[in-house]
């Protein structure tokens, strides 16, 4: 579907009813068959006909407004058929939306995308707005967040895009299963999303090298002045960063710090000097500060 500005409207099929639909029978959609309607829209291959009012089309669609403003030669009859290339489901949704009629729940992302594409082509701001509202509530909001982010980015819906950016953080962006959704993104939208994922991991990595965390280099025990090694912390840090790659949200790290072998090794590490055996890490405080660091990471850009 092209927008009206791109389209040579004179090539569009607008024909008096009698001249073309004789062979199609009366396959009107039951909710769009009122004989008072002065305009008939035919879906792709004329599978379903929709009788509606030119006034509704003119006032809700820039495309039809342009089409109806074209000079008519010969003068139009009272009733005309416009042959469109859209599937009947798409036309039904759009016509219901612009006519203020109830419509079935939008539960398919494929359908939502087809509708957006058609509404954009027909320059129908109403349906675009309705679909925008629908994508942030179930069932659409529960669909693949990468695909939802792609839709928001395509239509410039910033606030909704932030919601889905956050939801992508529960996934590893480098996993092959997300490739198709990521391919739909513009380069700038893709770079933006990748930056959010990477920045969370890198910020946490840097934060875990700063005080109060130990540096990881050999040090001296504050209790016995014997030499101590912090290799258990280095290994735990590595594990935390790997987990951030897999799930940049970081929420699984809290449980990991209680269960991972690398974490358990840290919590039982002690000074090797006989008779000292001071525990090297303060577990409750370390858990608290790591959680604080993760909670402070930015969820969007
Ligand atoms: Zn010691």
TrEMBL record:
Matches recorded under InterPro entries: BTB/POZ_dom, SKP1/BTB/POZ_sf
All residue ranges annotated as the BTB domain in the record: 37-98
Gene3D superfamilies (UniProt xref): Potassium Channel Kv1.1, Chain A
Source organism superkingdom: Eukaryota
Designated name of the protein: BTB domain-containing protein
Species this chain originates from: Ephemerocybe angulata
């Amino acid at each position: 579907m092209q927008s009206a500005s791109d389209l040579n409207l004179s090539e569009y099929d607008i024909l008096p009813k009698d001249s073309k639909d004789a062979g199609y029978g009366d396959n009107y959609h039951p909710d769009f068959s009122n004989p008072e309607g002065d305009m008939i829209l035919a879906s792709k291959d004329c599978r379903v006909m929709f009788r509606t009012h030119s006034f509704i089309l003119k006032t809700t669609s820039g495309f039809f407004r342009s089409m109806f403003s074209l000079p008519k030669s010969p003068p139009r009859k009272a009733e005309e058929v416009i042959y469109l290339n859209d599937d009947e489901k798409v036309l039904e949704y759009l016509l219901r939306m612009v006519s203020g009629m109830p419509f079935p729940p939008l539960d398919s992302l494929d359908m939502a995308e087809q509708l957006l594409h058609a509404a954009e082509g027909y320059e129908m701001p109403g349906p675009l707005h309705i679909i925008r509202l629908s994508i942030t509530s179930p069932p659409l909001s529960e669909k693949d967040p990468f695909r939802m982010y792609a839709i928001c980015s395509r239509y410039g819906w910033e606030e909704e895009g932030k919601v889905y950016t956050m939801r992508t953080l529960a996934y590893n962006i480098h996993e092959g299963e997300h490739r198709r959704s990521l391919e739909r993104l513009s380069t700038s939208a893709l770079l933006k999303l990748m930056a959010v994922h990477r920045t969370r991991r890198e910020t946490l990595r840097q934060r875990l090298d700063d005080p109060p965390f130990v540096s990881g280099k050999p040090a001296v025990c504050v209790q016995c002045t014997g030499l101590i090694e912090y290799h258990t912390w280095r290994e735990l840090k590595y594990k935390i960063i790997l987990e951030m790659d897999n799930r940049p949200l970081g929420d699984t790290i809290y449980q990991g710090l209680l269960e991972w072998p690398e974490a358990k090794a840290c919590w039982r590490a002690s000074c090797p000097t006989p008779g000292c055996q001071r525990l090297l890490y303060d577990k409750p405080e370390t858990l608290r500060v790591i959680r604080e660091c993760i909670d402070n990471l930015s969820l969007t850009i």
